[in-house]
Amino acid sequence: MKELIKSLISLLFLILPFSFMACNKDENPNTFGNTENELQGNENLNTSGNIENEFQGNVIIVGAGASGLAAAKKLEEEGISYQILEATDKLGGRIQKNENFVDFPIDLGAEWIHEDKSILNFLIDQPGNEPNVETILYQPMNVQQVVDNIISQIPNEEMIDYYEGYITEYKFKNTTWYDFLHENFAQNIEQNIIYNARITTIDYTGDQVVLTTENGTEYQADKVILTVSIGVLRSNAITFNPPLPAKKITAIQDVEFLPGFKLFMKFSDQFLSRCYFI
């Protein structure tokens, strides 16, 4: 998983096409109201994939994670009315941080920058290659391996070869992905988030899309951008009416989605200066 960068970029290439095809209602059958049409069929979109600002309806974004906040920022820039429905009591989705474990913030979700650090400027439409937040190149050379219970040092030449065939990676030095997300995407839109609004049903059979939460509260919108995770979609936690087309369900099932976890450990005595797993 490309963590936050993949989440943001997928806003245009995965989430918007899926969401509008599933959840728009338009009178013109050649738009996304017809779930069998392709992305370019929506006359409300310009060639860059953004909603043209003559759109006068309201939009609901489901999910206040990286993609949902990025979508909200774009709608905010275009002056389009929107609300964000977030299932939990906090924004960020799987992008969270801990400031109590040690004397520096720890990413609880996405941590690496799986790209050149200039991607940070690209994500917020800023010029230049040097971001205004300090980063460090993540290419450790002092690496050991365990084979048959024997610990050995990996030669520097092998590590150099390894990195030449691998993607460039950076990490934030004194901050986190959550801070980047909050500062650049969430600050001006947080007032539009409704928390603890877990959507269980999306009905797009009428003139407007009707979203129902687990406690029975209904919301209506002209268009819906659905940014929940692949795991949520696979779990069928949201019921669609009418059901999603078979090709959409197949696409969801085909997306690689591997399990994982993070483990932080604190010891009373220092016995190891650093540890990396490759």
In spatial order, strands of the major sheet run: 10-2-1-14
Q: Which secondary-structure class do the elements indicate?
A: alpha/beta
Q: How much is the average pLDDT?
A: 82
Shape: elongated
Query: What's the CATH topology label of the largest domain?
Result: FAD/NAD(P)-binding domain
Provide the number of structural domains: 2
CATH class group of the largest domain: Alpha Beta
Protein described:
The protein is α/β, with parallel strands linked by helices. The protein folds into 2 domains: 3-94 and 180-254, FAD/NAD(P)-binding domain, CATH 3.50.50; 112-173, no CATH class. The chain is 26% helix and 19% strand. The chain has 7 helices and 15 strands. It has a 4-stranded parallel beta sheet.
What is the gist of this entry?
The protein is of the alpha/beta class.
Tags for this model:
278 residues, alpha/beta, FAD/NAD(P)-binding domain, 2 domains, four-stranded parallel beta sheet, four-stranded mixed beta sheet, 7 helices, disordered N terminus
